[in-house]
Design goal:
By secondary structure, the protein is an alpha/beta fold. Helix 8 (237-261) crosses helix 11. It folds into two domains: 3-203, Alpha-Beta Complex (Spore Coat Polysaccharide Biosynthesis Protein SpsA, Chain A); 215-322, no CATH class. Strands 1, 2, 3, 4, 5, 6, 7, 8 and 9 form a nine-stranded mixed sheet that branches. It starts with a strand and ends with a helix. The chain contains eleven helices and nine strands. It comes from Dielma fastidiosa. InterPro entries: Glyco_trans_2-like (IPR001173), Nucleotide-diphossugar_trans (IPR029044). GO terms for molecular function: glycosyltransferase activity. This is Glycosyltransferase involved in cell wall biosynthesis.
Length: 323
């Protein structure tokens, strides 16, 4: 078996057929589909059963609800493929994705192969988004540098199964698990291939832009605690210091802070700023000397000058936009 495609399912009956049809329409045929039903309360299992009756390449795992990380891990346990792919059940893929990505993977025995993606919006418009891996990488320093820019999602990549021999799995019970997963995998990646085509069709679902309070917002902090703890245990903090420092600051002062602003709750936002600044001050007090900020343009300037004033500007700009 060349490829195992793991598809976690929870409350996606509306999109599941399109997802499965796109996988079954692949020009590449040496694969298995492992669907993991994470106790979905809708009619997803009815659809799964229907497809299993027709397509022998489909296996289904039914399990108690544990979240998408737990579902992906369950699929990994039984995956028999030389390569692994994760596809979310509310997205779909182009028919030539696996043929071209497997061909790339086998061309130089890459550990990881990335592709670009299309964001699909409700109004029918699309936006192509880069994986930010612009060329094939074999050199240790080049692979390290790619940590500072790689798109962290698992579903625009295929992985050689040897990457999972080191025990790295998705962390159960946290949000934003994608980011943590790819950073914890990096010490074992010796080569990265890229195909600059948008194979993944990432559907942007309609709904409220603002959020209600959820303590899991602070999982961004937990994720980075887990990542840094892993590198410390492996004795790799010194080797990867600059890349981890830049990435941690970027995620906490940009992505995390912007996400917190979307809640339109100033008290919550201030808590997020406090926690982010406390962690950066503790772990990376000299981050402004980091070499990667010089090439980061306006975002780098924002990160270097981040303080409570600039944070508040982000908050009020976001709230006004939402309002």
């Amino acid at each position: 078996m060349k490829l195992s495609v793991i598809v976690p399912v929870y409350n996606t009956e509306r999109y599941l057929r399109k997802c499965l049809d796109s996988i079954l329409a692949q020009t590449f045929t040496d694969y298995e589909i492992i669907i993991v039903n994470d106790a979905s309360p809708d009619q997803s299992q009815v659809i799964i059963d229907e497809y299993m009756q027709v397509h022998s390449c489909i296996t289904c795992i039914k399990k108690p609800n544990g979240g998408i990380s737990d579902a992906r891990n369950a699929g990994l346990k039984i995956a028999g493929g030389e390569y692994i792919s994760f596809i979310d059940s509310d997205d779909y893929i182009r028919e030539d994705m696996f043929e071209k990505m497997i061909k790339k993977a086998e061309s130089e025995d890459f550990d990881l192969v990335c592709c670009d993606m299309d964001y699909i919006f409700e109004n029918g418009k699309t936006k192509t988004v880069s994986s930010h891996i612009e060329s094939d990488l074999h050199d240790f320093e080049a692979i390290k540098e790619s940590m500072t820019r790689i798109y962290p999602a698992p579903w625009n990549k295929i992985y050689h199964r040897r990457l999972f021999d080191h025990g790295v799995r998705f962390t159960k019970g946290v949000w934003y698990e994608d980011m943590e997963f790819i950073y914890r995998l990096y010490p074992y990646i010796k080569s990265i291939g890229t195909v600059k085509e948008p194979f993944n069709q990432y559907v942007q679902h309609p709904g409220a832009i603002t959020y209600t309070y959820d303590e899991r917002l602070f999982d961004y902090i937990k994720n980075w605690q887990h990542i840094l703890s892993d590198y410390e245990k492996l004795g790799l903090m010194a080797s990867y210091h600059d890349e981890l420092e830049f990435s941690c600051v970027r995620y906490l002062y940009a992505t995390f802070i912007k996400r917190a602003a979307n809640y339109s709750d100033k008290k919550l936002f201030d808590q997020a700023v406090d926690k982010a600044m406390a962690m950066i001050h503790e772990r990376f007090p000299d981050y402004k000397k980091n070499k990667y900020f010089k090439g980061a343009g306006l975002k780098g300037l924002y990160l270097l000058t981040f303080n409570r004033l600039t944070a508040n500007l982000v908050y009020y700009k976001t709230v006004n936009k939402l309002g």
